From TrEMBL:
PANTHER family, per database record: PQQA PEPTIDE CYCLASE, RADICAL SAM DOMAIN PROTEIN
Pfam families: Radical_SAM, SPASM
GO terms assigned for molecular function: catalytic activity; iron-sulfur cluster binding; metal ion binding
Designated name of the protein: Radical SAM domain iron-sulfur cluster-binding oxidoreductase
Domain Radical SAM core positions: 22-257
Keyword Ribonucleoprotein: no
Keyword tRNA processing part of the UniProt annotation: no
Cofactor(s) this protein requires: [4Fe-4S] cluster
Keywords, alphabetical: Iron, Iron-sulfur, Metal-binding, S-adenosyl-L-methionine
């Protein structure tokens, strides 16, 4: 029954996304309040953008954007970074304004700045979902994240959200874990640790690692992409064939267990062995560039989080309706469709905004798994 309910809910959502995709109409939003970060992750380079010199919108400017986004029809807003809590003068009031306008708020965080006061203010502002990033347990988490004390801070954040939320349903607490050669073996230990907290779901995610060759082959209108999902320590963290065999066995073992939360393997149904060995995903038509608005810290609108210099317009000077779907935007979408953006082969963001066909395929595979005729993972 849960599978049928999930299928109905997701297929309804994908029908809506499909309509918006065909119209080139934004439905969701990813907003970078800042590129500055308090982590130095080995699998991400966004913290190395700090010297980019890009201006950041003021509190007043961010708040002024919300009515226009609501009027346009944006339904969700991901408060992103860097570490968005470096913009404490913005994030609490922005979350409250989104809540007032009926826009669902999502907040991914490394929890480095999630002290009790910050959590109380986020919950009070009506935050809808918090995505706590946890990659391992104890000092192994700190090793992946590149800063000491990170695991103790995220454990404290879990305590704070649990206590402040109390018996309420918001925010949903979701744990995001990127599985790579650095940490996949300890994933069962992490699940055991999380079993002591009121977590709604755990999302294991495949590693995103863009190749330098694909970045160089993706120049468009003189602009190169700048994907931040890349190694920052000079070493690839993709898996070896032996690692992949071991990880598949770990997944089978985990899926045979019962946990007090939902472990969502959805994105793993969009992968092949090459995803883990080479960082490449099956090429499909992208719904991100057509339906997911990305806002840079200075208010620039771009069609892809990894193409921050391909600017369609700026929301402090133009309306979203005048920007999204303009000729410059449609040139980008045409380049995608024609296969001229090689970085799309390495993109795992697309797996979170799937097409109707992919969603149908996912639930077909899940149904076959129930009969024992299919083993995807």
């Amino acid at each position: 029954m849960k599978l049928l309910v999930g299928a109905y809910r997701e297929l309804s959502a994908e029908l809506l996304r499909e309509r918006h995709h065909r119209r080139v109409q934004a439905l969701d939003c990813i907003a970078f309040l800042t590129y500055r970060c308090t982590s130095c992750c080995r699998t991400c380079t966004i913290w190395q953008r700090e010297g980019s010199g890009m201006a950041e919108l003021t509190r007043e400017q961010w708040l002024e954007l919300v009515p226009g986004l609501a009027q346009y029809g944006i339904r969700s807003f991901e408060i992103f970074g860097g570490d968005a809590l470096l913009r404490k003068e913005v994030i609490f009031d922005l979350t409250e304004r989104l809540t007032e306008r009926g826009i669902a708020s999502y907040f991914p965080t490394n929890a480095n700045l999630c002290d009790r006061d910050a959590v109380e203010r986020l919950v009070g502002a009506g935050l809808g979902t918090v995505y706590l990033s946890i990659d391992d347990v104890d000092e192994m988490h700190d090793r992946v994240r590149g800063v000491p004390g990170g695991f103790s801070k995220v454990a404290q954040a879990l305590e704070h959200f649990s206590a402040v939320r109390g018996c309420g349903e918001r925010p949903y607490i979701v744990i995001c874990t990127t599985l790579s050669s650095l940490n996949f073996r300890n994933f069962p230990k992490l699940l055991d640790f999380l079993s002591g907290y009121p977590v709604q779901a755990v999302y294991p995610r495949p590693l995103g690692e863009f190749s330098a060759a694909n970045v160089a082959a993706s120049r468009l209108d003189g602009k190169l992409p700048e994907p931040y999902f890349a190694s920052s320590d000079g070493s690839s963290h993709l898996m070896s064939p032996e690692d992949l065999v071991e990880m598949r066995e770990m997944i089978r073992e985990v899926r045979s267990r019962s946990y007090p939360f939902y472990v969502n393997w959805r994105t793993y149904y969009s992968t092949t062995d090459r995803t883990f060995l080479c960082g490449e995903y099956p090429l499909c038509h992208c719904r991100v560039a057509s339906t997911v608005l990305t806002i840079n810290p200075n208010g620039d609108v771009v069609p892809c989080p990894f193409f921050r210099s391909y600017v369609l317009g700026n929301l402090t000077r133009e309306s979203l309706g005048a920007i999204w779907g303009n000729p410059h935007h449609r040139e980008f979408l045409a380049a995608q469709r024609q296969g001229r953006l090689a970085i799309c082969r390495n993109c795992n963001t697309r797996a979170y905004y799937t097409s109707l066909t992919e969603t149908l395929g996912y639930y077909a595979k899940r149904a076959l798994e129930r009969t024992g005729l299919y083993h995807a993972l």
